[in-house]
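User: Here's a chain of 123 residues. Predict its fold as tokens.
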Amino acid sequence: MYNLKKQQLGALAENLALNYLIDKKCKLLAKNFSCKFGEIDLIMQLDDTIIFIEVRCKAVNSLYTPLESINTAKIIKIKKTADMFLVNNNKFADNLCRFDVISVDHNALKDNFNIVWITDAFN
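Assistant: Prediction complete.
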């Protein structure tokens, strides 16, 4: 059923992650927020914390974990993009912020997905 191209699979993973986070009582602030520095897949709010989320979809048999697939350059881009979001949305300037990763593991043989939420992933 899920014989999708990489871009389609990424979009599906982002939607699965979004629904998962909404079920966990997070509120969506922005999806695919982009600026000159880069893009953040999801920006959510949970209580008083703003969460900048990188969504990674990988096959179950992948050689790398989602965190291992995010290099230092990508982390710098995400942090600069988050700063730009906060500048553009100064009502969140006093909120706590953190960077999370959502791993959506795709098992094509079983035709299912497993979601893992890695909180405070860059610390």
